[in-house]
Specification:
581 residues; alpha/beta; Glutaredoxin; FAD/NAD(P)-binding domain; 4 domains; seven-stranded mixed beta sheet; five-stranded mixed beta sheet; 32 strands; 26% helix; globular
Amino acid sequence: MGTITEAEVPESAELPSASRHSDTQPQPAEAPFSTLSTRRHQMFPELTDDEIARLARFGEQRHWAPGELLFRTGETGPGMFVLLSGSVKVFQRDGLGRERLIVEHGRGHFLAEVGQLSGGPALVDGMALEPVDAILIPPEQLRAAIVAEAELGERIVRALILRRVSLIEKGAGGPILVGKHNDPALVSLQGFLSRNGHPYSVLDERDEGMLCIVERFAARCEDLPLVICPDGSVLRQPSAPELATRLGILPELDGERVYDVAVVGAGPAGLATAVYAASEGLSVIVLDSRAPGGQAGASSRIENYLGFPTGISGQALAGRAFVQAQKFGAHVAIPVSVRRLICDEEPRRLETCSGDVRAHTVVIASGAVYRKPAIEGIDRYTGRGIYYWASPVEAKLCKHENIVLVGGGNSAGQAIVYLSTHARQIDVLIRKAGFESTMSRYLIDRIASLPNVCVHGHSEIGGLDEDNSGLAAVRLKMPCPEGVDHFDARHLFLFTGADPNTGWLRACGVKLDPHGFVLTGDNESCSLATSVEGVYAIGDARAGSTKRVAAAVGEGAAVVAQIHQRLAALRPVTVVAGVHA
């Protein structure tokens, strides 16, 4: 795939948002993909006869009768269809039985979206309006076609990405989340689906239709949030893995298969490993408990990453890397939590919440977990007043309200800049006198120009006050120089650092430093190797690493060369006619 530039993927690709429907009646047909109408030529390119012939060698020609479905919402997508004759109606169908026309395709068009690179579930229905002949290219062959046909492959991938963006904007093919807008469980599900680029829509107490839905499914308060899946099934207070399983986005793990590389963590370091290893022909699986991007994926805008002069959101950067890894055939399993690494077996074995994974080499790219300050009662407010990242979901919750934000690093600075466009007032608490020693200059200058941001040096949280609605105020240990001892705010954002996410390694023999970071470099030729042969560490989890996205990506690329050394040593040497082969 060629590089997808800022001009090629719209801003909405970076910050997918839920669509909202207040009525429960069938939706009328609308102009398809109205918000991306200027991109239709890229979203729905028409293939020439020569291009169709070039793609034909990757698939099989098949026939569908009028009224027959080529693919159905929620079912595993068979791949990409290249229409040779006839026409196909693509339409959205949700769990309430509502339908909306998306587009009609004719000869020379292809039917698929980015999920078909990995054989994910279909998000829409496709029905033959008349006799249809088409070439069906299954996911594995689709990836091969994109790599083999570079220029054509670039156009196809761009179209697949743009189609997913539009589906996200419309909530097409995704679940309907029903609950109170500030319910931590609802906020968590929204964040999970948004960061994984999956469409959804929301009905909350501000929508007239919510009460009808609650009555229709006889839901009680303790059943909320309610999730209505595209197939009409209903989940009551589901966890993210339960929702992922029902939606078909949690891939099955084959405990018998042995991968060349298993990567734990889908942040920038882990995704870089996946891209470089898979592009060099290695079999790769990536495991992550939440979403692509890690902590960087929650950054509202990264402006000092090489090659993006106008900046890019962490979610957009992670999304592109995720697609790139899938393009080369990496198997990405999210959300899958790794419980422990078994190092006394060959191949190495990872125990996960969804079964075992075996691999000749393991790359620890599990990053870090958000650090919680020692504040009494802090866990009561997580998701309902206290947040550890600033995404569109959180920004919507604090629209035109007061915010307190704690932290002085780049992540805090990016969040301040982003949230300042939503909040009424942001009071920033830092222990030092200023940001100079902890934050990039461009962020310091930008924050200084924001009229609704006030930075309070030498300030720390002393406690939290609440009322019937939740968090009500943030108290300080000592009054500010101007005499303020508390801030009335229902939203507290904490960017107080992170600890290494390495608890799952403590029983496997991998050496950690006193702070829990993974020690590497015992082997001079393998600087990223750990104390256990065949196990490597990169990114924020590695002791001594530079905590920057670019550094993590560089380590992800570098570790692949060291993995090749290990795999070469494992392969048996064969002798043919006295010559080593």
